[in-house]
Amino acid sequence: MMKTTFKLKTMLRATVIASLAVPLMSAMPAVGQTSSSCAPRDQVVKRLAERYGESRQSIGIGQRGMVMETFASADTGSWTITVTNPSGVTCLVASGQSYEMLAEALPNTDSDV
Q1: 11 to each of 14, 79, 107, how far by Cα in Å?
Q2: pLDDT for position 111
């Protein structure tokens, strides 16, 4: 029962993050605009590593060439989700604590079982 509850919470969390990331990716500042939560990607990655000990844990490609990345620290549990536009401007989307790496098996979709 506890294992099922954990998986349900994990799936719910992933769904919430995905539902938030898609609209935010569309709302990113246009190239040339500035925002206090946006900077060139190399600067953002360097700051996440130096200040929070975070390294990239996952990556995905979104609409219009946007790249979503999750950075996290195994030592502190801090995490950050970023979105980078095709021109190389990276914006912070969300951050928090208690990051956990999951390696869940895919569900069996074989119709013979």
Answers
A1: 5, 17, 13
A2: 74
